[in-house]
Amino acid sequence: MTLLRPRPLALVAVFIAACVAATAQVPDSQDAARAAWRYRRPVVLADGAKADGFMAVTIPPEVAERSQPSLADLRLVSDEGREVPYVLDIDLPRTAERRRSGRLVEAPIERRRWSAWVVDFDTATAFDRLELDIDGADFSKRVDVETSLDGAKWTRVDGDAWVFDRPWRGRRIHDTAIEQAAPLTARYVRLTVDDVHSRPVVVRNVTAVLTTHLGGRRWTRDAALVRLDTPAGQPSRYRIDAPAGAPVERIAIATDDVAFWRNVQVFEAGPRGDVVPVSERATIYRVRLDDAFLDAERLDVDLVRPIAAPLIVEIEDGDSPPLAHARVTLSGMERRALIPATGAALTLYYGNAATRRPVYDIEALRTRLSLVERYPQGTLGPETANPRFAPLAPMAFLASRGAVADTSQWTVSRQLRLTGGDDVYTLTLAPADLVHLRPDLGDIRLVDSERRQVPYVLEPRAAAARVALAVGKATPRDGAARTSAWQLTVPSDVPDGANRAALPLAALDLFFTDGFYTRPAVLLTPDRRAPHGQRVLEAATMRASRRVAGGTPDPQTFDLGDLRTATLGLEVGDGDNAPLTLTRAEAVVWVPRLTFKAAGGEYRLLFGNPGAAPPTYDLADLRQDVLAYSAIPIETKALQPPAPNADYARGARDVLSGLERGPLLWTALGFSIVALLWLTKVILKSPPSPPSQPPPPMP
Known about the structure:
Helix content: 10-25%
Distance between the termini: 176 Å
Shape: flat
Radius of gyration: 38 Å
CATH topology of the domain at 464-590: Jelly Rolls
Strand content: over 45%
Structural class: mainly beta
């Protein structure tokens, strides 16, 4: 019998046919029904998945980069065209430790050459780490580890183990734990150390630790560090050159330097060029202990929360040169979709910037599902573009224009220019806008170039903005001795002399340079009816206990409850202490945010109409849907500063208001006073009238 070898061209044809067949598994009607999703991947089902159970499908970073930040646009669709529910879960690590303390028994010692200890755990014990309690300092010793089940037959553990406590460049490195690559089981452990190269140490106790890890699988990705321009003498800053998408939880910094020690902090880069710290100030190092021929290193920096935005790394070089060829490895916990096991072929669709998160009944099982130790694992096939992709305008069923507004009734206008397409946008107002608005915010209008209203959904307290107050010295009430006083003033950078007292102050943060103090403080607000013209808002005791010099001081916070005032008074009792140094004061103001649908073009925000009724838009019935969309935030540069509304028609109320503030009122008051004084003088100088004579008597 002769075996025929397949020709290379035949193999290619078979491969192409297989690819075509795999592509044909997704019906065209299914792609058309998900035309708003740009990408798709086949789901390779897990082996061993039970029909009544669940399986897990890992969502790799490549999918997250093309999806919404919260993965709200993921859709799983069966080959029958039905949407398959899922629970989005993070494979969080769960660690359990079993610890057993041993008993030290006698061991032979050859003084000046080596020391040894035998540890008895009383029963066969599994462990993957030995923690040694060592009495001593300034040592570095190689440890030979041997195990035994009966105390007679010993087995040497392969690999080098070291314990050390050594200073290095002004730092101290201490490590007395011996890690094992794989768990060992023994009743007895013999530890032998070399005393030739360093003085002897004493082991006081040994604990065997067995660690069990559940879940916690991580994805990793290498990225470059791009050095940014930084002033001389300042820490070096680097931008992580990697696409934003998957939430990063840890970075590991690599370098070609053989030995270094650096303090590192990671920042999140904001859209306006600002940076926010997202890690504690950590230390990375690689040290070489020459007397022990030992390299020790720590290169990981954990973030305080998962970050999908661009990241900035700040490295304090001190007097050392920057790290050589610095680079990073990004990592984060794997996110997975938990899906009811099915025999049908599945396709994952993603890449829809407008849709919102689906709501499935099995979401109620999230907590229980996350506690399962492991699931049959499904995987994703290669990414392909949806051939029927056709992006749709978000919320196409909604009208983006309302009724025409009578813009002559609004006093203030802000020009807005949108350059994007038809989409859902979000706009956060500035604190200065609030001085023109009513407390109920019912006089906000957004109109297009034809004065047609743009319906919006309003979040009255969407974001906390900070307003820097002017700080000036003041005189304490009654001239109180040993008391410091300040006046805090709302800034006057508001056009047209708008009332600064209309700004609702939610809280007050005071920053003092002093680090340790306990002082009574009184916060005051102007009140004509109160003694000294000031009313006590709050009396409290300010405390600080920062025992370390330097650093950012913690603020002293006062709750103001949306107080509307232009000035605040602060008095601090110093007692026999030196006065505190108040460096700055900031007010917290809650600002509103508008979410609306619009296309590119010119718009105007209108403020300041005391008589306007709050708007009523059909959009209000879809408030949750609108807020659930991934709206595009409008950049500050697209919005012009507040200015007088050119359409505004002045009325009698404005004339009276102008008189109240203008010189005509004072002139009229002056004439009235002069007239009253003249009339009083005339009355006082008039001669008294003679007394009337009584009538003659009747005859």
